[in-house]
Amino acid sequence: MKNQKTGHVIVLTYPAQGHINPLLQFAKRLASKGLKVTLATTPYTLKSIHSTTVGIEPISDGYDESGFSQSPSVQAYLDSFKTVGSRTLSELILKFSSSGSPVNCIVYDSLLPWALDVAKKFSIYGAVFLTNSASVCSIFWHISHGRLSFPVTQESGAPLLMPGLPPLDLPDLPGFLSQPAPHTPYLALIFEQFVSLEENDWVFCNSFEELESELVNEMLGLWPLVMIGPMVPSAYLDQQIDGDKAYGASLWEPATDKCIKWLDKKPPQSVIYISFGSMANIAAKQVEEIAWGLKASDQHFLWVVKESENKLPDEFLNTIGETGLVVTWCNQLEVLAHPAVGCFITHCGWNSTLEGLGLGVPMVGVPQWSDQPTNAKFVEELWGVGVRVKKNEEGLVTKDELEMCIREVMVGERSDQIKRNVMKWSEAAKRAVSVGGKSDENINDFIRKLF
Ligand code: UDX
């Protein structure tokens, strides 16, 4: 069936905002080039996803009522997803096989590695989609292949050297790699996906070659690596697909109108936009430091606090007036694209990093966990598009540190250079996904195999 050129792809996403966004955008890109594409996700998240060009179908994680929050533990959730997900994904493929558009490829989120077994069972193409940078994935790959020991240590004090990467210190690595075994269920899953990486027909990465060129050169012979990003809605980069100003999936209600009306009244590049993505749970003490750091910076700010609203000091809320706007969720892309925004304080989740870079907004990196410390290091040192905070002995970013980083990016000595760099990378991101760009051509090559 691998040679059957039916041109129907199932794109399977993990049901979290930072995963649905790039996979849905990829699905839309494939559909815009004439492929039949079906996005498969869990019933709980399915109702938040909209597309006129991509079919949306449920597959089950075993918790159809309210998803992950219904499960007793991370391990129980992942086990259930593997068992029930494999079965329901198989049923979906069987349903299409008798419908006149049989599926000939599964593109699956790297957090769902069992989908490759389903692809093999049906003898169709299997391709993994990496939602982290290729650099971060290569670090996991080195560990899962015994090229770097786990937990990672730096006893001699010398930086860690890996092909295609700059020298890295322990705090630059993805959060949990220096913590002692046993692995958390997520970390075990991450290693599992990298053990079988070479068995995929394609390894798609939401990044672009120019951004990680040295690493790509090192990895090309080792994985079937294909850079296809950045998967940011076309309206902001190349205008190829449609006018969508959002990904088309929001797990929370965005206060978009309120934000845009407020931003419309502010001078160009005068506003700090601050958000820590969809997963971070910021401690009350840290929220307070951020609040006073923003206040001390004396700039306008728009802050997405998500569930941290009750951690904001009353004294702060009572004094912000028109200087600041606090919301629980927004359309981040529309905010970043607004001319009033001049700085993005971000946790450096990979989507946020690509969005800041693609839309040309200088960043202050405040990494929390996972891949974020590595992304923040690259933002500051490799791409020069921002600065990253230093944490104190307690692991806190103090208000003084945050204020200093904001000034550095908005008005400091490095400010002009940072602005020039981010515009340069924004142009490179646009080139990559535009007609004839490297990511665009890579997607065309993939599609040619399926038709
Ligand atoms: C996590 C990881 O941090 C990330 O690196 C990984 O690749 C995917 O899982 P998350 O922490 O949510 O994701 O951050 P990020 O990757 O930045 O994704 C957040 C997404 O939510 C972005 O696409 C952003 O545009 C969107 N968002 C965020 C909103 O639409 N509104 C908001 O108010 C905040």
From TrEMBL:
List, alphabetically, the PROSITE patterns matched.
Answer: UDPGT (PS00375)
Q: Which GO terms describe its molecular function?
A: quercetin 3-O-glucosyltransferase activity; quercetin 7-O-glucosyltransferase activity
Q: What is this protein called?
A: Glycosyltransferase
Per UniProt, the keywords (alphabetical) are:
Glycosyltransferase, Transferase
Family under the similarity heading: Belongs to the UDP-glycosyltransferase family.
Residues covered by the Glycosyltransferase N-terminal domain: 9-55
An example Gene Ontology biological process: monocarboxylic acid metabolic process
Asked whether the keyword Glycosyltransferase is assigned, the reply is yes
InterPro entries in UniProt: Glyco_transf_N, UDP_glucos_trans, UDP_glycos_trans_CS
